[in-house]
Design brief:
The complex is a heterodimer of chains A (about 160) and B (about 170). Chain A is of the alpha+beta class and about 160 residues long. In chain A, about 30% of the residues lie in helices and about 30% in strands. In chain A, a hairpin with a 6-residue loop joins strand 3 and strand 4. Chain B has five helices and five strands. In chain B, a hairpin with a 6-residue loop joins strand 3 and strand 4. The N terminus of chain B is likely disordered. Classes of the chains: A alpha+beta (about 160), B alpha+beta (about 170). At the A-B interface, helix 1, helix 4 and strand 2 of A face helix 4 and strand 2 of B.
Chain lengths: ~160, ~170
């Protein structure tokens, strides 16, 4: 990750793809979202979704996994070039989550995120807040997910 | 659409603004925090106590997506799986208010904020819920607010079909 001052609104990051297998859909659902259409093919077929589909929360968690993998790659490149890498900040929350299409077993989603806003933090003077718009598209090109996520980003030390 | 057991499950008609559903309590272990983070959010402050102390979180803390997943589980067990759930179009917001640490005991509450019949699908309506998890010190750790689609016991008579998502969710 960059320092707050280096973030450029409009930056787009392609985060890569994830295939949702029946096994991973059921494993997440057993632990965290045990609704029949996330647990069983036949129950999925009988539901209004028409097939076994992933919990929306699992789709969110996968977007985080790919975001972290991209950050790890970017930080490794920055360290290799001798740049200082700031500590990462947590997130105060996300907004406007839209599950636009069901994610069925076997679907592959491609994720990308766009920096849409940055601003100073009112409560933490050493930190700013960045807002990223996440989007995911399935193998037919249909958008399946969108949300806005906020994250604290370290500022450079201020000159005294 | 008909639901198996629709007469015994909670239907759209059974939810009212202001209804409060107490959910279960769960304790969170370091092993679970680290296992979830390794799968979905492998950042140092979710994987290691020492790295957590050096971070803004001040100690090993659960991924926010883990806390959200726990909230979902308590909501599913306490409300959704006894209801004619048809999924959700999204969440208005998720707020992470306080870190969740190993040994924390989280207790859930679901509050019904609004109910709105679907304008295009007579078999269902939208129930806007807030689900919050409070820790053993009475601090709210997470709140999620969003609509859930719940099947109706008796299908509505539609006046003016409008199938757009914006019209459906009112957002």
């Amino acid at each position: 990750m960059s320092f707050y001052e280096d973030l450029v609104v409009g930056t787009v990051r392609e985060l890569g793809e994830e295939t949702f297998t029946a096994e991973s859909i059921k494993a997440y659902a057993r632990a965290y979202d045990p609704q029949p259409f996330h647990l069983d093919e036949e129950a999925g077929r009988r539901s209004h979704f028409g097939g076994l589909c992933a919990s929306g929360l699992q789709v969110l968690a996968v977007s985080m996994k790919l975001t972290i993998a991209a950050q790890d790659r970017i930080e490794a490149e920055e360290r290799a070039r001798g740049k200082a890498v700031p500590p990462r900040g947590p997130s105060p929350g996300v907004e406007m989550v839209r599950w636009l299409k069901p994610v069925f077993a076997g679907d592959t989603l491609r994720f990308r995120t766009t920096l849409v806003d940055k601003r100073a933090s009112a409560s933490k003077p050493d930190w700013g807040i960045a807002t990223w718009q996440m989007e995911a598209f399935n193998q037919k090109g249909e958008q399946a997910l969108s949300y806005r996520g906020n994250v604290f980003v370290r500022r450079r030390a201020q000159a005294a | 659409m008909r639901f198996d057991g629709a007469m015994t499950q909670r239907a759209f008609e059974d939810f009212h603004p202001g209804d409060v559903f107490p959910l279960a309590s769960v304790s969170v272990t370091a092993d679970e925090i680290i296992a979830f983070a390794a799968l979905y959010d492998p950042q140092p402050f979710h994987l290691d106590e020492e790295a957590g102390r050096a971070s803004l979180l001040g100690g090993l803390a659960a991924s926010g997506w883990h806390t959200l997943s726990i909230a979902m589980r308590l909501f599913a067990d306490g409300v959704l799986n006894d209801s004619c759930s048809m999924g959700s179009p999204g969440l208005d917001r998720v707020s992470w208010r306080a870190p969740v640490r190993p040994g924390d005991v989280l207790t859930g509450t679901c509050t019904i904020r609004e109910v709105r019949p679907s304008r295009s699908r007579p078999e269902m309506g939208f129930v806007l819920v807030s689900v919050a998890l409070v820790n053993q010190n009475d601090q709210t750790t997470i709140e999620m607010v969003g609509p859930v689609m719940i099947g109706r016991r008796v299908a509505a008579v539609l006046e003016e079909p409008d199938t757009s998502l914006a019209a459906e969710t009112g957002r």
